[in-house]
């Protein structure tokens, strides 16, 4: 028989299962929605984060901090002191190397490399400082030198023998630093401090530096730098007098004939500067040293096999003799038979330039109204040859003064 269930509130088993499944679906949907919201939130955050905060760059090497913490420029005095310290470093290093040169012990290769690397670094630093000092003294680009900066620099250089250290250390510098250092030393000879050129006073007390500069002509590597500095130093009359009266003066007759063209030309320039710049000092020197000086001059310079030496020397001789301050020396020179024969020999030179320079000296012999008998005898013996020479003696360009001088010489010789 068929039985009908009771009317109680219990849910049939199938109905309970459906309800449970709906709850699970609801929970899964809520969880999925929560994850999507979270992902969307993270994506939005990641898009916003670059515009909010970035880690600052603190790299000094890249230059970002350089603009913030820029070092204060050094004063001229500070640059000089730094240069002095570096020069002492190289001076001591050179002394230490010389002292240990006989030792058989050698450093490891890595240690040697580090030392050489340090040396190059120091040399680069020193070169940079010397260049800065040169720029202060000469000005840079279109900027004129600042007077106060030049005074500070000059005062500091002449403290604690810095100038001496710079001159002595010059052979240890690289080529560019040598050039800059030579220009610094040269410029300092003109700098005034309280209306005084203190370089002159310093060299007066350190004359051995002049000995060093003159002997520089014996070292090919530094000869031109030392010669340049020497010419600037002899701007001071007392310093020129010291060099003229020293034994170094005799050396110039050999330096001028050195085979190296640049060195011999530089020595000639210094020689000429010594004999023409300070008139009264030169006149005194020639008067005291007449015999040996002109004997060397005639024998080594006027008779030189080198064309340039011969030409420069005969021109220098004319400049000296025609200078009014040397009038007494000129009268003594033109009364010498040997001197005239040396000059007449150059009148027959194959070079027209040498002939012309020789003529300017020879005219002094001819114009002398108190010719010694031996001079007159030589002129008479060569009278026809001289007149024939001067008849064809002309300059490439017309020169009224030259023609007047030549006419006077011809007249003097013809009247003998």
From TrEMBL:
Transmembrane segments: none annotated. Residues 25-38 have a biased composition (Basic residues). One of its GO terms (biological process) is intracellular signal transduction. Residues 1-66 are annotated as: Disordered. One of its GO terms (molecular function) is protein serine/threonine kinase activator activity. Residues 1-22 have a biased composition (Polar residues). It comes from the Eukaryota. Belongs to the Mo25 family. This is F-box protein.
């Amino acid at each position: 028989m068929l039985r009908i269930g009771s009317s109680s509130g219990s849910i049939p088993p199938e109905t309970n299962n459906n309800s449970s499944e709906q709850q699970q679906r609801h929970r899964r949907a809520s969880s999925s929605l929560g994850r999507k919201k979270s992902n969307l939130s993270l994506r939005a955050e990641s898009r916003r984060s670059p515009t909010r905060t970035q880690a600052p760059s603190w790299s000094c090497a890249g230059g970002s901090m350089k603009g913030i913490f820029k070092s204060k420029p050094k004063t001229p005095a500070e640059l000089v002191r730094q240069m002095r310290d570096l020069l002492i470093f190289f001076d001591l290093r050179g002394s230490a190397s010389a002292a240990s040169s006989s030792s058989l012990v050698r450093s490891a290769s890595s240690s040697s490399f580090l030392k050489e690397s340090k040396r190059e670094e120091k040399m680069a630093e020193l070169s940079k400082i010397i260049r800065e000092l040169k720029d202060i003294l000469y000005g840079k680009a279109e900027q004129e030198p600042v007077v106060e900066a030049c005074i500070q620099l000059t005062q500091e250089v002449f403290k604690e023998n810095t100038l001496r250290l710079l001159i002595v250390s010059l052979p240890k510098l690289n080529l560019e630093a040598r050039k800059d250092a030579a220009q610094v030393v040269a410029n300092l000879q003109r700098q005034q401090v309280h209306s005084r050129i203190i370089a002159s006073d310093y060299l007066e007390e350190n004359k051995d530096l002049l000995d060093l500069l003159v002997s520089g002509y014996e070292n090919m590597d530094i000869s031109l730098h030392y010669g340049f500095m020497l010419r600037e130093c002899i701007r001071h009359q007392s310093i020129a007098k010291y060099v003229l009266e020293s034994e170094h003066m005799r050396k110039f007759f050999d330096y001028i004939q050195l085979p190296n063209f640049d060195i011999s030309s530089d020595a000639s320039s210094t020689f000429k500067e010594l004999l023409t710049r300070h008139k009264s000092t030169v006149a005194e020197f020639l008067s005291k040293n007449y015999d040996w000086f002109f004997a060397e001059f005639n024998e080594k310079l006027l008779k030189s096999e080198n064309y340039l030496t011969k030409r420069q020397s005969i021109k220098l001789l004319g400049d000296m003799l025609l200078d009014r301050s040397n009038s007494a020396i000129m009268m003594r020179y033109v009364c010498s038979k040997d001197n005239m024969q040396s000059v007449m020999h150059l009148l027959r030179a194959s070079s027209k330039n040498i002939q012309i320079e020789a003529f300017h000296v020879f005219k002094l012999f001819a114009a002398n109204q108190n010719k010694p008998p031996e001079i007159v005898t030589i002129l008479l013996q060569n009278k026809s040859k001289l007149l024939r020479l001067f008849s064809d003696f002309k300059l490439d360009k017309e020169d009224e003064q030259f023609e007047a001088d030549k006419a006077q010489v011809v007249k003097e010789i013809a009247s003998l």
